[in-house]
Each structure stands twice: as structure tokens, then as C-alpha cells.
From TrEMBL:
Origin species: Chryseobacterium candidae
PROSITE patterns recorded: YRDC
Pfam families reported in the protein's UniProt record: Sua5_yciO_yrdC
Protein name, as recorded: Threonylcarbamoyl-AMP synthase
Domain of life: Bacteria
Alphabetized Gene3D superfamilies for the sequence: DHBP synthase
InterPro entries attached to this UniProt entry: DHBP_synth_RibB-like_a/b_dom, Sua5-like_dom, SUA5_domain
Domain YrdC-like: from-to ranges: 14-201
């Protein structure tokens, strides 16, 4: 059964955040809030956790395109090829924020991402994922939670999310109702911003 942890953005309890970190380090899956929608996450360096995440999404790991959640831009060079100054300025002016930026990947990607030519980077404007990444010491892999409802694309109620994923994840972080608009996906691989999916973020 998934453990529900009520962690609030304005005053996140350190002991609860530490419990999330311990779960991630032990290969667990979490559901966490962001500045857009609730999402599934795991340790990018734990191949078994990444495989479980892919199974949950009913896809093969090598075919998956899980975003990498960072708490700032300092991790960029770990995963991406050198970035032009103009692109870096563009990223800096839009992050933290409700965007996923597609960048060219380097050869130092974690095992689960090997062979990927590009990588999606997110820096959510939300204290909880930022705190998790900061305390964990490295980014986490992430994918959005889709709803089966044809009208409402994304689940917003953490209690209903916990019910649905009860036996599939280890922790659900309840931060109150989430948004139901996903991040805007922007491809920066050509050097010019190209919107792949219009979401919450306005370029």
C-alpha cells in the first residue's frame, strides 16, 4: 500500500521529506506535486526503479522519454551538450517554471537513458520537488499522471490519485489539489525555441 504523506509547500516537514529521500534511495516510486500537475518520479540512477516506472506507463524503458527534474540549472552540464549563451539566458528567464525543455543529450546520461539523443529538463516552480532533488543530491526521473477520464486529462485530487495508485507506488505526497494543465514542451535542439506542446507555460 502507498503511504500518503501530507507535505505542504509553505512549511515542508523535514522528517517527511527525509522519508521520501529514503524511499527514492531504496528504489521506490513516488507521486509528487509540481507547478503543473501531479507526477510520478523515481531515482534516475536506479535502473530497477526506472523499469518499474516504465512498466507503470505500459512502455519499454528504452522507448520511454521521462523528463529529468532538477532544482536549478546547475545539473544541465551533467546531462546535456554545451549550451549557447543565448539558449542558457532563455532557460534562465523561464525557469523555474511550467516548462519542459528538450535539449541535446551528452554521453554521460544515466544507464536508463543510454542512447537517447535528446533529454527533457524540468525545473518546477514548486518548493517540494525542488527540496526533494536538493536533499537527494541529484535529479529525479518524472512522468505525468494521466487520467482515464476523457474530459479531464490529468488527475488533480491527491486522495483519488492515492486510491488509484495504492499498490503501484510507495509514497503519495499530498500537497492539496494540483493543476490540470501540463507543462509547455519546448524543443531547443535547433537553437531556436519550437513549441511541441502548448501547456501552462507561455513563451
Amino acid at each position: 500500500m502507498a503511504k500518503i504523506l501530507k507535505i505542504y509547500p509553505d512549511n515542508p516537514q523535514e522528517n517527511l521529506v527525509n522519508e521520501v529521500i529514503k524511499t527514492l534511495n531504496n528504489g521506490g516510486l513516488i507521486i509528487y506535486p509540481s507547478d503543473t500537475i501531479y507526477a510520478l518520479g523515481c531515482n534516475i540512477f536506479d535502473i530497477k526503479a526506472m523499469e518499474k516506472l516504465a512498466q507503470l506507463k505500459k512502455m519499454k524503458l528504452e522507448k520511454s522519454k521521462f523528463s529529468i527534474i532538477c532544482n536549478d540549472l546547475s545539473h544541465l552540464s551533467d546531462f546535456t551538450k554545451p549550451i549557447d549563451t543565448s539558449i542558457f539566458r532563455f532557460l534562465k528567464s523561464h525557469l523555474p517554471g511550467p516548462f519542459t525543455f528538450i535539449l541535446e543529450a551528452n554521453k554521460s546520461l544515466p544507464l536508463a537513458y543510454k542512447g537517447h539523443k535528446t533529454i527533457g529538463i524540468r525545473v518546477p516552480d514548486h518548493p517540494i520537488p525542488q527540496l526533494i532533488v536538493e536533499k537527494l543530491g541529484h535529479p529525479i526521473a518524472s512522468t505525468s499522471i494521466k487520467d482515464d477520464d476523457e474530459i479531464i486529462e490529468y488527475s488533480t485530487d491527491p486522495e483519488l490519485i492515492a486510491e488509484k495508485y495504492d499498490h503501484l507506488v510507495d509514497i503519495v505526497i499530498d500537497s492539496g489539489y494540483g493543476d490540470n494543465v501540463a507543462s509547455t514542451i519546448v524543443d531547443l535542439t535547433s537553437g531556436e525555441p519550437e513549441i511541441i506542446r502548448q501547456g501552462k507555460g507561455i513563451v
